[in-house]
Model the fold of this input.
Amino acid sequence: MGKTIVEKIISGHVGEEVKAGDYCVVPVDMLMCHDATGPLAIKAFREFERERVWDPTKVAFVLDHATPSPNERISGLHDMLRSFAKEQGIRFFDVGEGICHQLMLEKGMVLPGDIALGTDSHTCTYGAVGAFSFGIGSTDASGVLLTGKLWLKVPQTMKIVVEKGLTRGVYPKDLMLHIIGILKSDGADYLCLEFTGSCIDDMSMGGRMTLCNMAIEAGAKGGIVPPDEKTLEWVRSRSSRFFTPKLSDADANFVDVLHIDAATLQPKVAFPHAVDNVHPVDEAIGIPVQQVFIGTCTNGRLEDLKEAESILRGRKVNDSVRLLLCPASREVMLEAAKQGIIASLVEAGATLIPPGCGPCPGTHLGVPGEGENVISTANRNFKGRMGNNKSNIYLASPATCAASAIEGRIADPRKYLD
Amino acid sequence: MSDLLLKGKAHKFGDDVNTDYIIAGKYTKTLNLSDLAAHLFEDIDPEFSKKLKGGDMVVAGRNFGCGSSREQAPIAIKESGVSAVLAKSFARIFFRNAINIGLPALVCDSDEIDDGDELEVDLESGFVLNISKDIKIPMEKMPDIMKAILKEGGLVPYLKKYGDFAAG
Done:
């Protein structure tokens, strides 16, 4: 019996052959902590009364969840991370650099075949480059800071085979919402999702990041795309570190296989208050929205901004709508500025907010009002997620969000693409 | 470690209770962890924290603790004085986080428990006793490593004692 990518990555790390269901202790290639969960990890690490972390070159700290700081208390937490990073020699990304997951990939800190962890559930995004990555809590992170290791159960893998191409106006976000609608919020509990098929082969690295990012919304431990030439070219342009890409064997044991014909999909919208409450856009058309948010670790990359701009260019955001635009990183913002994308979106009426998580986790910036509807490119629409439990959040692609910003109501983006 | 015999009243929830519902993101940016308790389950039941008595248990359906990796979720539950969380299934990260902070997260058929039932959990025997209904509900066996971590009261005391993961 062959092995899945994840079984191979873990076997390579522990130095013996392991299979799904085995428990093992793995060495970690990279650990990321951010401002919402990092302080607790430091607090726990201090309890070990150990001076140094196991390997500061394998740790990164990012300020992204509440940036720039909205208050004194959070400034204190930011400073705690800043000081600890300096003291330990940990790579640190301060306010305005961008969202942790975008930075980990963009800066070449996670490579194919790595085991990468982060104190954020969307750490599974790094599966896009063929790494086995997943979110952990702060105390688990403190254990990694101390030992460089984590115990885990080798997950089974579910293969998602996506064939044919997405049609015009339909994007990786729509595909992933469709998949979550099928699997539901716990359909992939404890599993790793492996995305393959001609649609994935043709998909950009950014699109693959969108898919892997939302694997957790079906309960998955991780998402992974088999690394191909595109992956290798992408990571080699960002890192000179040695890596060993892994691929699943043809006779690997998959717990399940889901086949999807991408050509049949239409734009999708997740209705409040659950990510798996997925409907075709037709069923959402006309629902009024007061706020539109384009950004996040799911859809704040250059291609997402371009996608929104292709619809908003030369048009105006509806008077009844606030359009918030938050590039995923400084690099994304700079490139979008150079290409005139930012200018075009701001001209249409977008409000630019600094790179980071923005309004998504509901700490500050863009908290919706009571009774308001928001359509967002984010990955979660739980009640209260954006800071107000009396507002409703719909999730969709950047294109659907852009079209909705024009109309002040949820709209099908395809009519703006002809 | 935490007591082997836990006793308290059940507070029943449904399926898919996510970590945003357990503790909203806006409250998580603090190291004053006792402050979290007042906001436990606030977005789904604003009065919840007032209904709790020390030792009470949170009982839920499938996929309890899905969503964010925020450890503030099990911390808020523990800081509220809840002695254990019982559910049909847990989301992976929450399950680890709870055990890592020494909060028993136990898998059992929660359909056998109604809101307000008096419960007794014997961590050693592996059974939940529903005193109100006079039934014994078996709990799913926890992986050995988690049992060892819970026995020490969490991952920090565990690693302080053993220095590494090698001890089972």
Notes: Residues 44 and 160 of chain B are 37 Å apart (CA to CA). The first strand of chain B starts at residue 5 and ends at 12. Strands of chain B lie at 5-12, 57-60, 84-87, 105-107, 118-122, 127-130, 135-138.
